[in-house]
Amino acid sequence: MLSNLRAIENMAALDDNWDEDDAIAPCSEVIQLAKGIVHSLNAAGQGIYNAVPGPNGEIMLDLRSGNKSLEIIIYPDKMKFVKFSPSEPPAQGYFTPSLLFTDLIAWLNE
C-alpha cells in the first residue's frame, strides 16, 4: 500500500518527455487527487495493484479482485473509470469520489 503512495509521490519528479516520447508529466493537482484516492482506498482496506503515470499527464490506479479489474484514471481536467470483467463487456464513465465505494468497489469485490 505504501509503495503505491511512494510511486505517486515520485511522479512529482518527472519532467515532460519522461518517456522520451513527448509524455506530459503529471501536475501537482493530479498527484494530490491520486494520493487522496489512494488514502481513501487504504483506509477502507482496498488494495491497489499498481499506480502509473500516463502520456497525457494522467495517473492510472489499477485495482484488481479475482478476475475483475478497475482502472481509475486521473487526468488534469477530468477523472474516468474503466471496469473489466470476463463475464461482461468493458464499461467506462466519469469518476466521482461518491462512486468509489457505493458502486465501483462494491462491483469489484462482488
CATH-defined topology: Nuclear Transport Factor 2, Chain: A
Low-pLDDT residue spans: none
Tell me the count of domains.
1
Rg, nearest Å:
14 Å
Read across the widest sheet, the strand sequence of neighbours is 1-2-3-4-5
Total DSSP E strands: 5
Count, helices: 3
Large-scale geometry: globular
Corresponding CATH architecture:
Roll
Mean pLDDT: 93
H/E series, N to C? HHEEEEEH
- Biggest sheet, open or closed, and with what strands and sense? 5 strands, antiparallel
Please estimate the helix content. Answer: 25-40%
Structural class of the helix and strand makeup?
Answer: alpha+beta
CATH class identity? Alpha Beta
What fraction strand? 25-35%
First CA to last CA: what distance? 21 Å
3D architecture notes:
By secondary structure, the protein is an alpha+beta fold. It has one domain: Nuclear Transport Factor 2, Chain: A. The chain has helices at 2-10, 28-43, 97-109; strands at 50-53, 59-65, 68-74, 79-85, 88-94. The chain has a five-stranded antiparallel sheet with strand order 1-2-3-4-5. Helix 1 (2-10) packs antiparallel against helix 2. The longest helix has 16 residues, at 28-43. The protein starts with a helix and ends with a helix.
